[in-house]
Amino acid sequence: MEASTLVFLMISLVAGGLAGSTLTGWLQKRKTKKYVSAQEATVLIERIEKVFKVVMAEGYFTEIYNYQNDKNIWNLINDKKKALIIAKAKVLVGYDFGKMKFHRPDGERRLVIDFFPAPEILSIDTDYKFYDIEQGWLNRFHSEDYTAILNEAKQTMNDKAMESDLPRIAGNQVQLMIFQLASSMNWEIELKLPDGNVAMLKEFTHYRSVEAQVDSLGTTKE
């Protein structure tokens, strides 16, 4: 075999190998991209739900949370950690109409409501900032400490929102919306609620003023 022919064959083999490697890599990347895209689409589909929730009132709350934890070491050293947390929240209160029960008498333009749900918090958008963090040599902050503090602060926001005037405002708003909508369509709304349902709804009609001032929550945990 001539030298030129041998060189040509070697170059062809190397070029073919490089081309095959490049093509294989391109195909693998393409398959990987397709697989990732399909996986992401599946995750998105799993998060889609049909809901019928309507926001009727919106409130803003601010809390100053003082956290302190004292740890006594051998009755000789009082090792403590503390932090100041300012928590702010935007609270949306409304109704989940998927929980409402009703029926329509045959041939009538009348809607009979058999059960009406209580107003509830539909979402809480929170923001937290930590200040004046101090910790001892042995008694230090860990991830579970921050999680517990934030969960407690969020629960406090939830409780204060339900104790405020937001549920009453939401109740008045939803009644106005339902009866005005029915009237505009020449429909009649009739409430036939059980006594327990009536009593439950009355709990949210008592006026409670929304506190605008900042409250301080001090806690000491051992």
TrEMBL record:
Tell me what organism the protein belongs to: Dyadobacter beijingensis
Transmembrane regions: 6-27
Q: Which UniProt keywords apply?
A: Membrane, Transmembrane, Transmembrane helix
- One Pfam family name is DUF4230
For this protein, the record's InterPro entries field holds: DUF4230
Official protein name in the record: DUF4230 domain-containing protein
